[in-house]
Please model this.
Amino acid sequence: MKIKDIEIKSNLFLAPMAGVTDFAFRSVAKDFGAGLTYTEMVNARGLLFSKNQGIYEEMLKVLPNETPCAVQIFGNDPEIMAKACQHPLVQKFDIIDINMGCPAPKVVKNGDGSALLLNPDLAVEIAKACVAATDKPITVKMRVGFGKDDCVAPNLAKMLEEVGVAAITIHGRTRQMMYSGKADLDIIKAVKDAVKIPVIGNGDVVDAESLKAMQATGVDAVMIGRGAMGAPWIFAELLGKSISPAQKLEAIKKHITLLKDVYSERYLSVYLRKHFLWYAKGHKNAASKKLELARMKSVDDGAKTLENIFLENAHN
Ligand SMILES: Cc1cc2nc3c(=O)[nH]c(=O)nc-3n(C[C@H](O)[C@H](O)[C@H](O)COP(=O)(O)O)c2cc1C
Model:
């Protein structure tokens, strides 16, 4: 499939996830066949005005072979969002995605993320300004609506298409639902039917069955978030490949090694803890090793525990 002029080889995408989709994790997901990956969301205002540009350089690190890759920005000021699209750190990416779905209270309170669903005219103004600011494809990721019974997505998608947005991702929940209940596949289908640009369906895809249900809506691509946490090989598995414990361990080692090139041991021994716990999940002996991982003293310590978990499972 194509998003504007960007060719994408697989229609299974890795979702943007703050605190999860670091460059190394994305690179591993790419190895396993993720067609398009996204950075975590980046504050447009912070990117433009923060004195500490180092934070943004780290957040927006991308390896040369991770292509195509999308950067996601958030904000509610059309001029600032447009300027952010022109920022050199953003221009490194193939696609620029605008966040209109984040439900986090601190984001919504500022009028960003899913709060834009309450103000479709402003949402469109932002998209229009971004489209005018760059030749890169501008895409939007949104939820169904804000309140319990709100359903602005199909109409908003149409309005965004009219101002030149190149693709829409729709997560089939309202902001009010946060992560509860189920993604509404009928509304995802309604968004697909409302526009001609590619639509990416998102929400609750974790296995072949849920993938099939999402694909039945007619969407052009499927985005996977939580299903990839601790399982960047999900893309290969959904493409029908069997991934051995040894291959999984190799992937985990790559994730760690790439991060070690950039971050300090002190930072990683805290940051990687959650990833290690996700990697351990579902293994027979994981429960007893959980505490060991949660209390790991060093990255190598945790990696050794994980290796034992995977090897023990491989021999069971
Ligand atoms: C830990 C976490 C962080 C997330 N961060 C972002 C983000 O930065 N930008 C965004 O658009 N969505 C973010 N999301 C939402 C996901 O991209 C996705 O829309 C949501 O998890 C539903 O898909 P899933 O059911 O496949 O997980 C995040 C979700 C999680 C669980």
